[in-house]
Design brief:
The complex is a heterodimer. Chain A is mainly alpha-helical. Chain A folds into 2 domains: about 45 residues; about 130 residues, no CATH class. Chain A is about 80% helix and about 0% strand. The longest helix of chain A is centred in the last third of the chain and has 28 residues. The relative contact order of chain A is 0.09. The relative contact order of chain B is 0.11. By secondary structure, chain B is mainly α. In chain B, helix 1 packs antiparallel against helix 2 and helix 7 packs across helix 8. In chain B, about 85% of the residues lie in helices and about 0% in strands. Chain B has 2 domains: about 40 residues; about 100 residues, no CATH class. The chains are: A mainly alpha, B mainly alpha. Chains A and B meet through helix 1, helix 2, helix 3, helix 6 and helix 7 of A and helix 1, helix 2, helix 5, helix 6 and helix 7 of B.
Chain lengths: ~170, ~160
């Protein structure tokens, strides 16, 4: 309750500050406002599609299917699927979180969804191609070959640790 | 990015043909989930707009160009962690810095933390996975990025 009040006050102060800056021509405020708009537009290009796909996924994909391919019995295949799915993810971490959350609620195990989150940060295909064109293939190859195994190993360790502690992700987001 | 629109349109059409009622339900779920997480997104966007103002490209260039590559690498990984930048800005910037002589390992520390560590996405990640897991995941990611940078340094002969 108290935190919500702080949040609303903070957001209001921000909006007033930006409007004030644009009216009076205060440059730092205008710059911050422009940053806000640029990033909002950038995300609004992606988020509606991402959430529609999540909605379709929730309705059409059966729990058993997710459990079989991403769940406790999936073994090594679960991680392979997670990495493949991650490589097609658009945007970045902020898209990966809601997707991972839906996967988890459908029965994916923790270590697989952490792998998915980590992999969607580092091996999205369009981004990697773009990276290689600026930094060279050797740079991208080293990055992928070193980070991907580390992501998978750390996800397994973190997943096992949390599962032992009976960690549950909150419902209803 | 366009393939996202194509896939979404295709999936939506297919779903609509198969079952109109279920499709409407899916859209309802999508809207509800989107609205639920919107405050967290707003918080993130506000933080991003302020942080990017405080840390413009010029400062990033200066910090990464530090003469000592290990200090440069530490700066790079901290900057990469606390900023958020789409790839189409970050990689051209790194391309320019590379031509200016900034070592690969410094740029690797910057881009890898940029991708993996999300201080600014914390409001969103916390909403889904809770504070503890968010903090642990980000700390692990930070160290993975450091390891990636060091290995990059070894392979490009920059370490010694």
């Amino acid at each position: 309750m108290k935190r919500n009040v702080i949040k609303i006050v903070g957001i209001s102060v921000y909006i007033v500050f930006i409007l004030f800056s644009f009216i009076t021509g205060f440059d730092p405020g205008k710059q911050i406002g422009k940053n806000f708009i640029t990033f909002s537009v950038d995300m609004l290009k992606i988020l509606p599609c991402a959430f529609i796909l999540i909605g379709l996924f929730e309705i059409w994909v059966k729990k058993e299917t997710v459990e079989k391919h991403f769940g406790k019995e999936s073994g090594i295949r679960g991680y392979i699927w997670a990495v493949l799915l991650a490589s097609t993810t658009v945007g970045g971490l902020y898209v990966a979180f809601p997707v991972a959350y839906s996967l988890y609620n459908k029965g994916a195990k923790l270590s697989v969804i952490f792998t998915y989150i980590g992999a969607s940060a580092i091996c999205r295909v369009p981004m990697t191609i773009f990276e290689a064109s600026f930094m060279g293939i050797k740079f991208s190859a080293i990055r992928l070959l070193v980070s991907l195994p580390l992501v998978i190993i750390s996800s397994i360790l973190l997943g096992d640790y949390l599962e032992k502690r009976d960690y549950k992700i909150m419902k209803g987001k | 990015m366009y393939y996202l629109y194509i896939v979404t349109t295709f999936a939506l059409t297919l779903s609509f043909i198969a079952n109109r009622k279920k499709t409407l339900m899916a859209i309802k779920i999508a809207v509800k989930k989107f609205i639920n997480i919107l405050p967290a997104f707003l918080t993130m966007l506000i933080l991003v707009s302020i942080v990017l103002f405080l840390i413009p490209d010029k400062i990033i260039s200066n910090c990464l160009g530090n003469n000592n590559k290990f200090i440069g690498m530490i700066f790079a990984s901290v900057l990469g962690s606390i900023t958020l930048m789409p790839g189409f800005i970050a990689f051209p910037l790194c391309g320019i810095l590379l031509k200016k002589g900034v070592p690969y390992m410094v740029l690797s520390a910057f881009t890898t933390t940029l991708m993996m560590v999300g201080v600014l996405t914390y409001p969103i990640e916390k909403e889904y996975f809770g504070m503890k897991v968010t903090v642990i995941r980000n700390i692990i990611s930070f160290f993975i990025a450091i390891i990636v940078a060091l290995v990059t340094g070894i392979f490009f002969g920059e370490m010694f």
